[in-house]
Amino acid sequence: MLYIKDQWCNDITIKSTDCNSNIEMLSVSLRPLYLPREFTNIFLTVLYILPNANKSIAAEYVQELANDLATAKPDSLQIILGDINRTPPETPNIYTICVMQYMERCMPRPPLL
Prior knowledge:
The chain is of the alpha+beta class. The chain has one domain. Helix content is 27%, strand content 27%. The protein has two helices and four strands; from the N terminus they run E-E-E-H-E-H. The chain is globular and about 40 Å long. The termini are far apart.
């Protein structure tokens, strides 16, 4: 469940929902009343990886969703909230992937020597 205050944002679109044996997930697109120019909109994803889920499949699903959203609107801010610490160490670290995508867009790259 996701609550968003009307005074903060009234332009909300559901982008993706899924509820299966591995993951429960809701992803929405938000366009708040105030948003810095660097971002066109905000993608907010809340998820829960079930205790008996196949963690590798769930991690791949979330990574695929994050990549699809980043491809659809490359200048958007992605926020993923929820139970992301249950993924095994051999799977891609979803937190690291999303932070790196954000840093690549917002931080200047060092000059090439």
